[in-house]
TrEMBL record:
Residue ranges of every copy of the RNA polymerase sigma-70 region domain listed in the record: 6-67
Family to which this protein belongs: Belongs to the sigma-70 factor family. ECF subfamily.
InterPro entries: ECF_Sigma-70_Domain, NTF2-like_dom_sf, RNA_pol_sigma-70_dom, RNA_pol_sigma-70_ECF, RNA_pol_sigma70_r2, RNA_pol_sigma70_r4_t2, RNA_pol_sigma_r2, RNA_pol_sigma_r3/r4-like
Assigned keywords, A-Z: Sigma factor, Transcription, Transcription regulation
Every RNA polymerase sigma factor 70 region 4 type domain range: 102-153
Subunit structure: Interacts transiently with the RNA polymerase catalytic core formed by RpoA, RpoB, RpoC and RpoZ (2 alpha, 1 beta, 1 beta' and 1 omega subunit) to form the RNA polymerase holoenzyme that can initiate transcription.
Name this protein carries in UniProt: RNA polymerase subunit sigma-24
Molecular function, one GO term: DNA binding
GO biological process: DNA-templated transcription initiation
SUPFAM superfamilies listed in its UniProt record: NTF2-like (SSF54427), Sigma2 domain of RNA polymerase sigma factors (SSF88946), Sigma3 and sigma4 domains of RNA polymerase sigma factors (SSF88659)
Length: 303
């Protein structure tokens, strides 16, 4: 049945759509559109359901991405990807964990839609240039050129990635305790010299409109946040986008969350989400999957 095949591959399809779009709600819209199209397909014309669905989701996501990027040009303040709550096993797949990390998602935002699709499908999900060419309707030689350009762009802008670990979670917890205690020196000791805080309020909640950079300014900013709001919140550890994170609940409702990027035992970035529209969907643990594209007959990228 069409529904059974779609459900089987849904984690993979959601992961692709999310990495192409940077929003869980947008990814769900694309999956819904793709499912409706899938229901109209004669199964006898499809050689391999997963390959066909990946192609369909890719094309729908590309169409959606152009509209999404236009909306983001009018976004109030700093924009962050819609955070997704991830299970601990996501960290066991280093490629997957890096690909959904806040840092990588922000780098992907600097690519044009076609570059983003080519990079994600090839470098994250392992599809060949020929398969991607069939999916996006371009010549294989063109896809190779796009892949090279996109990879060079991404590598020039991303930091070295370290997968989440128990040590990373402990560093995040020590940071939160130091902030609650108002211990400036303890905070400074946990921050990298070039640490950055990026806050997303979407114009609907109080947040820094611009990134805060450097140990002294970040420490002061964090202590200010604690004095004004965090001291009255209940704080829960969590994982978002494959990163250690903290959920801040006020009156039982998720008020904001913070995700920590940690490298060499120091916090290099803090991503604070306060936009209520994005927080509304942040309680759902999203199953992510890179799939195994070299198994099961990828030759059926055509109807």
């Amino acid at each position: 049945m069409a529904e059974d095949a779609f459900s089987e591959h849904r984690p993979l399809l959601f992961t692709i759509a999310y990495e192409l779009l940077g929003g869980a709600a947008d990814a769900e819209d694309v999956l819904q559109e793709s499912y409706l199209r899938w229901r109209e397909v004669d199964p006898g014309t499809v050689g391999h359901a997963r390959a066909y669905l990946v192609r369909t989701v890719t094309r729908q996501a590309l169409n959606h991405l152009r509209a999404v990027k236009a909306r983001r040009e009018e976004y109030v303040g700093s924009w962050l990807p819609e955070p997704i709550r991830t299970a601990p096993e996501v960290g066991e797949d280093v490629v997957l964990a890096e690909s959904v990390s806040m840092a990588m998602m922000l780098v992907l935002e600097t690519l044009n839609p076609t570059e983003r699709a080519v990079f994600v499908l090839h470098d994250v999900f392992g599809y060949t240039h020929g398969e991607i060419a069939a999916a996006i309707g371009k010549a294989e030689v063109t896809v190779r050129q796009i892949a090279h350009r996109a990879r060079r762009h991404v590598h020039a802008r991303r930091r070295r990635f370290e997968p989440d670990s128990a040590a990373g979670g402990e560093i995040a917890q020590r940071f939160l305790r130091s902030a609650a205690d108002g211990d400036v020196q303890a905070l400074m000791d946990l921050l990298a010299p070039d640490v950055v805080v990026i806050s997303d309020g979407g114009g609907k909640a109080v947040a820094a409109r611009r990134p805060v950079v450097g140990r002294p300014d970040v420490a002061r900013f964090v202590l200010g946040v604690y004095r004004t709001s965090a001291m009255t919140a209940r704080i829960e550890p969590a994982r978002y986008n494959g990163m250690p994170a903290a959920r801040f609940l006020t009156g039982g409702a998720l008020d904001w969350l913070a995700a920590f990027e940690i490298r060499d035992g120091r916090i290099t970035a803090l991503y604070g989400m306060r936009n209520p529209d994005k927080l509304d969907r942040a309680d759902v643990v999203r199953p992510l999957d890179r799939g195994t594209p070299d198994q099961g007959g990828r030759q059926a990228w055509r109807p």
